[in-house]
Amino acid sequence: MTDIDSSFPPEMSFDNYKLLSNLILVSFISLSFRSPKSFLHLATLITLTICFMIQPILYRGRYPANEQASVAGLGIIFGFKMCFWLKKFASSHSVDDFQPFFYTLFYWRKNVTSGKKEDFQPTNKQILQNIVERSVYLFIRWIIFESCFKVMDMYSDINEIPSSPYFFRILDMFRTGASPITMKSLLLCSFYMVLVYLLVSKNYDTFLLISGIILLFLNVIFPTVNDKEKSFLKGKIFSVKRWCISFLFDTRYIFDSPWLSTSPRDLWSFRWHTLYNDIWKELAYVPLRHYLTEDNSLSENRKNLAQIGGIMGAFFLSAILHEYLTWTEMNELTLEQFYFFLFHGIIFVIWELICISNGCYHQLSQTSISVLN
Fold first, then answer.
1. Taking Cα atoms as reference points, which of 18, 4, 19, 132 lies closest to residue 67?
2. 173-177: long-range contacts at Cβ-Cβ below 8 A with a sequence spacing of 24 or more?
3. What's the rounded Cα separation, in Å, for the pair 287 and 282?
4. Which pLDDT score is estimated for 27?
5. Which residues are listed as membrane-spanning (predicted)?
6. CA distances from 191 to 47, 198, 222, 327, 368 (A)
7. How far is Cα 151 from Cα 368, in angstroms, rounded to an integer?
8. What's the CA gap between 195 and 261, in Å, rounded?
């Protein structure tokens, strides 16, 4: 038994480790081009989802954090998306308006208020202008990111960062008067938030830049291709062009000036990392709210309580995601991220209740519906 335990999981190079993760993802995508109508099909997809999410946990500490991050990030984000996709088949093997899982990886938050027509066709000049602007933004963000990273690397000292989780430090502040955060840890946390913002932004800008280059190339080579093409190749080329146009010109940016937030709801619901909103909403907020409001005769207070449960469920799932990333990348399970996001969920709810009591909102349900939209 000892020999088996010591060899599990088996040793492998990082390239093979990443290849295994990609193979699991490709297998799930390949099996999801049709709805799972048999138990075996559904069980296979669920098994692939579990394997995809648990692989980074099994191999935590085996590889450098910067390398592990690429696999762990996809493991939890795409893993949640797999769960989101499979949730549709929880009660039925067929769903209306079926879409393969592959499609859900790209069309996640179309900006219906952009004002552009469905058949909007940008000129080469507009596409080139978009590419130039994105290149400038990407370069500026890269310079700032590298500068902040070097400053943080030079002055970070793990011994000066409190070891107890964030939530318990807050409790100690009320109990003993001890400060929950030092000036140095405050600066480090601020730098870390800037780094997260810049890292996600420049990665997103890279995808936008690549999409712009692809669109410009296709627009030059195939300027007249349209949706009435009978050729299979030209039909697919048109689909790629439409996707690139939607991504570049008809999709909200991943951040919306989070530093201008006027409330916790404004920050978490509309300005900070909107890519995950559907995950929080469909896997936590909506199920919990519906579970707590099954009885239609509930009082207004009970309905508000159900909304609070949904909000806390969304922050709970977000806490799991961030703790998962820290655990798999750093091989340290401190629960710092977990308590941090739960505490912010409590702040979110308290803020909403204060607004209701002051007449800003009529009831919690009117604001919470849009919490994760």
1. 18
2. none
3. 7
4. 96
5. 40-58, 181-200, 206-225, 305-325, 337-356
6. 39, 10, 46, 20, 31
7. 39
8. 19
Rounded-to-integer distance, Cα 180 and Cα 298, Å = 40
Q: What is the pLDDT of residue 353?
A: 82
Classify 110 as helix, strand or coil: strand
What pLDDT, on the 0 to 100 scale, is given for residue 19? 94
Ramachandran quadrant class, 331 (left: phi over 0; alpha: psi -120 to 50; beta: rest)? left
Q: Is the CB of residue 350 less than 8 Å from the CB of residue 304? A: no
- List C-alpha distances in Å: 217 to 39, 131, 244: 44, 12, 11
Alpha helices in the chain (DSSP H): 2-6, 14-31, 39-58, 65-87, 101-104, 124-155, 166-176, 183-221, 232-249, 264-265, 277-280, 286-292, 300-330, 336-357, 364-368
Q: Give the Cα-Cα-Cα angle 98, 99, 104 (nearest 5 degrees).
A: 145
The tokens 């190079």 sit on which residue?
A: 13
What does the pLDDT read at residue 77?
85
pLDDT of residue 91: 63
The pair of structure tokens assigned to 280 is 């929080």
Those residues with Cβ within 8 angstroms of residue 31's Cβ, 6 or more apart along the chain or in another chain:
41, 44, 45, 48
Q: What is the CA radius of gyration of the chain?
A: 23
The tokens for 181 are 């955060």
Q: Is 352 exposed, middle or buried (0-12, 13-18, 19+ CB in 10 A)?
A: buried
> What do you get for the CA distance between the two ends of the chain, in Å?
50
How large is the angle between the packed helices 232-249 and 124-155, nearest 10 degrees?
60
Query: What is each CA distance from 326 to 21, 248, 348, in whole angstroms?
Result: 19, 32, 23
Q: Which two tokens stand for residue 8?
A: 């599990």
- Along the chain (373 residues), what's the average pLDDT of each consecutive run of 10 residues? 60 92 94 88 94 94 84 88 86 68 66 56 90 93 85 61 67 74 70 81 89 92 73 80 84 84 82 78 86 71 82 91 87 82 88 74 47 43
Q: Are 318 and 273 in contact (CB under 8 A)?
A: no
Contact 120, 245 (CB under 8 A): yes
Question: Which residues pair with residue 110 across a beta bridge?
Answer: 251
Asked if 211 and 217 touch (Cβ cutoff 8 Å), the reply is no
Length reported for the chain: 373
